[in-house]
UniProtKB/TrEMBL annotation:
Keywords: Lyase, Metal-binding
Keyword Metal-binding appears in the UniProt entry: yes
EC number: 4.99.1.3
Example GO molecular function: metal ion binding
Protein name: Sirohydrochlorin cobaltochelatase
PANTHER family according to UniProt: SIROHYDROCHLORIN FERROCHELATASE, CHLOROPLASTIC
Nucleotide-binding as UniProt keyword: no
InterPro entries reported for this sequence: CbiX-like, Sirohydro_Cobaltochel/CbiX
Record-linked SUPFAM superfamilies: Chelatase (SSF53800)
Length: 115
């Protein structure tokens, strides 16, 4: 059985956590066996999410990073965390460059959405 792990960085800012949970809820509508894990500051941690998958007899985790860039967390930190557990995993690409994101940026400029 496979599980999907949405990984977010985490933040001390409450709104950031809430946005990660909104993406997670969207995923759960389509993929029932998924969990959310944070790198730091928030719970559940990646480790706790993996432990839950192991309890559920999940054999492989598909890691979906909620990151814009492929930095040290994706290249080093997340694999090091996951390698501690007896479970197979594959890490999907982060968002990177995507014209759809450019469309969101254009929309924000045109609407003048202020922070």
């Amino acid at each position: 059985m496979k599980g999907i792990l949405l990984v977010a960085h985490g933040s001390r800012v409450q709104e950031t956590k809430e946005i990660a949970y909104r993406y997670f809820e969207d995923l759960r509508k389509k993929y029932k066996n998924c969990k959310l894990g944070f790198m730091e500051f928030n719970e559940p941690s990646i480790e706790n999410a993996v432990k839950e998958f192991l309890k559920e007899k999940v054999e492989e985790i598909v890691v979906l990073p909620l990151f814009l860039f492929e930095g040290i967390h994706i290249k080093k930190d997340i694999p090091e965390i996951l390698e501690k557990y007896p479970i197979k995993f594959k890490i999907l690409k982060p968002i990177l460059y995507d014209k759809r994101v450019s469309g969101i940026l254009f929309e924000r400029i045109e609407k003048g959405e202020i922070y």
